[in-house]
């Protein structure tokens, strides 16, 4: 409960991963066109969407083993997303590099969250 007696909103990792994937897509739209940006953009779009998709699958898993595997995939995809965003930032001069840095930080934070979930689940 907060100071006004209202219940605090629950932390929603599914929503956070959705917003991350959405924001990555919006960021990619702002990049100048080049063949490398197109290819790197495709990679980060795939990996950023996979973070949340695998987390949703983990929440619907039928076994602890499946849950851990999906969380590991989410962690891996978050790490990969950070890599692609870093690559895009290092190969472009962008007016909105701050947004790219925010997205890279979010990918790193998501990776850490999934790592912590794995640690707590004995994996």
Protein topology:
Blueprint: H1 13-29, H2 35-59, H3 64-90, H4 97-120
Which percent bin holds the helix content? Answer: over 70%
Structural class: mainly alpha
| Annotation field: number of helices | 4
CATH fold group: de novo design (two linked rop proteins)
Largest sheet: none
Low-confidence stretches: none
What would you give as the CATH superfamily? 23S rRNA-intervening sequence
Strand content: under 5%
Summarize the structure.
By secondary structure, the protein is mainly α.
Task: Explain the overall architecture.
The structure is a single chain. This protein has 123 residues and is mainly alpha-helical. It has a single domain, classed as 23S rRNA-intervening sequence (de novo design (two linked rop proteins), Up-down Bundle). Helix content is 76%, strand content 0%. The protein is built from four helices and no strands. α1 packs antiparallel against α4. The longest helix has 27 residues. It is elongated and about 45 Å long. It starts with 12 loop residues before the first helix and ends with a helix. The mean pLDDT is 92.
